[in-house]
Specification:
- The protein has three domains: 197 residues, Growth Hormone, Chain: A, CATH 1.20.1250.20; 54 residues, no CATH class; 247 residues, MFS general substrate transporter like domains (Growth Hormone, Chain: A), CATH 1.20.1250.
- The protein is built from 21 helices and no strands.
- Helix 3 runs antiparallel to helix 4, helix 4 runs antiparallel to helix 9 and helix 10 runs parallel beside helix 17.
Length: 508
Amino acid sequence: MNGIQSSSRRWWILGVLALSMLVIGLDMTVLNLAMPVLAEDLQATTSELQWFANAYNLVLAAALLPAGLLGDRFGSKKILLSALFLFGVASIACALAEDAGFLIAGRAVLGLGAALMMPASLSMLPVLFKEEERPKATRIWVTATALGMPLGPILGGWLLDEYTWGSIFWMNLPIVAISLIAVAILLPRSQGSNKNKADIPGILLSSAGLAALTYGVTRSGDEGWGDALTIAFVAASVLLLIAFVWRQRTAAHPLVPLALFRERRFAWGASLATLVNGAMFGVLFGLPLFFQAVNGVDSQTTGLRILPLIGGLIIGAQLSGKLLARLGDKVIIAIGFLLMAIGLGLGALTDVSTGFVYIACWVALGGVGIGFALPAAMDAALGALPAERNGIGSALTMAMRQVGGTLGVALLGAILNSAYRRELPVDGISAEAAETMRSNVASGIAVARQLNSADLLASVKGAFVSGMDAMLWASGSIAVLGLLLTIAFLTNKKQAKANSETKHQVNL
């Protein structure tokens, strides 16, 4: 397969992989806009509406590590073809769903297809590209992945305006069909490794632990951290993941070789990418609420207003690529975190009257920071993987990022909600109305309008902005932490090579 590194086909293959990852990102966010329509057409309860999103995220988190093992064992091409076919079938099932239960099941299968696709796709980059080209390929892959999430509301808003809600799933099929044909024709067959035996206890422990953590943290966003079931799931996840680590230390053929974490560039590259995800989701979580609740714009306009993040990310990825050879990835990642911290800090100064131009500037600056930090951190982790562990190493990186994003939304959302409730004026309002207002900013605005109180409406908006500012300060703190960890612990590629050669000579 090494011959393909000198063939122009590798860039066509990368384009197909990027297109596949774009549709996964779209599916993470596009459903949010359809919730009101789904509630009416499928007679879905609030709990079922939550499961439309959670079924996808839970299965995605739970299946990532086993999916990486399958890629190593059977070869990336077979897994990619299977994943794309599964994703296409699940998209059809979701589009044709006539009741909530069927749609939840279809979303779960979509999550499984995405879980199989992500590590198989990422693990192809070190195989397709030589070391000097891999950072560019990683930037393209990461950019495509990141673009899907903010594009979801834009494309979804247009589809829902023009067609039925099933259109948000039908749109997957042309992309899946093109990807299936292209992968079958362009991608050379990759040989799996029979050395990678199935660690069934490890698979069960990791899947259950990641699923429990994702569900518990997601539930905390709605019920709070004092909820008994939230605590139970998070506690269970901690115990399961501790048992998983113990199993990996003692198993003859572990699912995740813990020796991977002895390689500093893998360990810190994956960890820093996780911190980028955690900080980034604060922006993706808070800004749509700000635009809709405070500015009063619709979902499609909200999606369009997030475009500066995409523009900044693309600019950052391109600029960092030109500077990488001169500065090294450690400096590039540090610059990325610094820009993110500055952008988020400026965002934390937002108030109710802040205009879109100011918001677009700090969002774009944060996007540039992400474009610097995320691709370089991912490439640092990828470059440290041995060829036979590309799949599981890529899956582990993606699992850490998925958990980082989920934790970021829950923790940052909790900070926002806490500050919002603390600042919310409820004196002179009935207990029932006050409780409704505390639940979320949309309900607070609805109550203020029902009471026809301009002062209360302004206070609700002000309370939300105070919460968003607190959340953005926390997001900025995550970026500062990433900057300090990068400076303190990440080794440059040249330094890592020198250390490896020294160690090899000592062993000889």
